[in-house]
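Appendix B, example 12.
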Amino acid sequence: MNIRLLGSAAVACAALLSPVVAGAQAAAFPAKPLRIIVPFTPGGPADAVARPIAQGLTERWGQQVIVDYRAGAGGSIGAEMLAKSPPDGYTMMVTTPGIVAVYPALSGKAPFDTVRDFAGVTNAVTTANVLIVHPSLPAKSVKDLIQIARSRPGELAYASAGNGSASHLGTEVFKTIAKVNLVHVPYKGAAPGVTDLMGGHVQMMIIGLAVGLPPARAGKVRALGVSSLKRSPAAPEIPTLHESGLPGYEVVNWMGIIVPSKTPRDIVARLSAEIRAVIQAPEARERFLKQGLEPAGNTPEDFDAYIRSEIDKWSRVVKRAGIKPD
């Protein structure tokens, strides 16, 4: 008996069977309830993304998908939990650029490594920010605002939702492209910043459409531009910063789904296809758009590449602006 020949045959057989086994695993998935970690408090934008996805997957699969809130430390508590979860596809997380790109650059000691520990499933939604100013500021356009800021260097104050927040970094990009000097006033969240802007204590703010549009439409602040390259379906009447004198300006928020990095690729692919089907369904699209969220959806490979580009982009912004953690 040729033992070496038998061994080679066994290896060859295993190689032939491995795709079959992997396919069987994907076909059997999911065989038990799943969970989506939301690394923020209930009621926020991430919750508005997680709940429709959880409901849609539950209906499609007949397995309950639980939304699990793990807020704290800028989303890093939930991210650390995901990194330590079994890589079997049963635990996902809603993430943002603030968690996977900004927080590691800002802290320098994140309890996870985005590229090493996570795999992208799909980018679920994107949402533009809106530049709003107090009505007392005689700026009717972005060009007006830039002219005023250049004539009064270091006098205009802008609010943000906190040090290192999307509103903070978005305004730092604005400052760089517009070549203006503004004073940063960080708040503990978007709401108090908008409140002080309406009260005239600060002059401007770049904040998510869902937060900035209501006071703008109520006449309490003035909306000058949105931060996406194309006008937002939620506010088509507002021009983009790109078309208003800041060519190339694009700072959009996004929320996507990630899993532990060693999750089998066939399961990642299935999760991606199913979630994309959920978010592109007519009812879900309408629900998202009403909240200023644009359904996205891309492949795991494209989402991984996009996350890496966001890490590079925001690391450079943090370094250039000299932003330090609180």
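The mean pLDDT is 90. The first strand starts at residue 34 and ends at 38.
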